Amino acid sequence: MMEPEQVRALLIQAFPEADVQVDDMTGTRDHFDARIVSEAFTGKSRIEQHQLVYAALGDAIHGPIHALKLKTYTPEAWAKIKG
Q1: Tens digits of residue pLDDT in 40-61
Q2: pLDDT value of residue 82
Q3: What is the DSSP string of the chain?
Q4: Which CATH homologous superfamily contains domain 4-82?
Q5: Which of 10, 29, 37, 53 has a 20 to 30 A CA-CA distance from 18?
Q6: Please, are residues 69 and 61 in contact by the beta-carbon 8 Å criterion?
């Protein structure tokens, strides 16, 4: 099991300029909801963006993290959503 801050730390390490939010969806510390806004996603498909995130999480995605609800955005896309 992992704390949301541990998951967030792994993501910030991979995407230092990113706006990252991680929440525990169930209170069991193995189901997370993550939102990542990063320039690193620019020009990449949604699949490529998610592959970058999975790579950043490394072995945690195959062990302590049982489920991950993932939302990735470029800063431009996030700005449109936020209005």
Answers
A1: 999 999 999 999 999 999 999 9
A2: 85
A3: ---HHHHHHHHHHHSTT-EEEEEESSSSSSEEEEEEE-GGGTT--HHHHHHHHHHHHGGGGGTT--EEEEEEE-HHHHHHHH-
A4: BolA-like (3.30.300.90)
A5: 29
A6: no
